[in-house]
Amino acid sequence: MLTLTPLPGIPLIQSGDDLAALILQTCEQANLQLADGDVLVLAQKIVSKAEGRLVNLAEVEPSTKAVVYAVETEKDPHLVELILRESRTVLRTRPGLIIVEHRLGFVCANAGIDHSNVAPPRTDEGEKPDDEWYLLLPEDPDASAAALRARLEAATGARLGVAIIDSHGRAWRNGTVGVCIGLSGLPGVVDLRGEPDLFGYELRVTEVGAADELAAAASLVMGQAAEGTPVVHVRGFPYPLREGSLNELLRPRERDLFR
After folding, report:
1. Does domain 3-52+138-249 bear CATH number 3.30.1330.100?
2. I want to staple 234 with a disulfide (CB 3.0 to 4.6 A). Which of 30, 39, 57, 87 is the partner?
3. This prediction's pTM
């Protein structure tokens, strides 16, 4: 049986915080022992915050290209410059929105840069008062997941998976949904081609985006607003754990009919 349990008591994360130590501490407080086959799903925000991916717009100098796109999209040119820096190419624009191919390879809105639930970094004097702080996606989410998994496995002796998720829109449907942007120790895609269906027919094209399905389920448990549950423990993941990467989930440009 698949069980998803949000870990309670995760504090507000600041740059440099030890996520592995916090997760282990929270598991102990919740009387939860990590076991072989378990998966930890983390919201991208806490990974980015721990890795210091905060940027102050006041420190960003807009390029000429950013100024042009800012006029088209009615966005702050400083923010547009950040979006361009995090992107390979701009695919579509409209007022209030820029769709890009992110430097990590996936297509998303505004390069995944976020302003919600982003507090200013703390200094020796307390929080900086400037509220124009934005959060970038992790530099390398697969590497972030792998490092966290290594720490957790070393501490527990269990064979684990780790997924980092974010909320993305979709080309054909309204509403955001949780998707996986980095993973370690679990499959991104499960290939069922060659397997029989209920009636014995051989599946010809079925490949399951298992990491994205898990991300969507975990996102429901995490919530999208002020719930404060950015880590979800998963037990009963229905596929064998193995090494995996974000690249499995990315459709090659030459096979993408929507670009």
Report:
1. yes
2. 39
3. 0.92
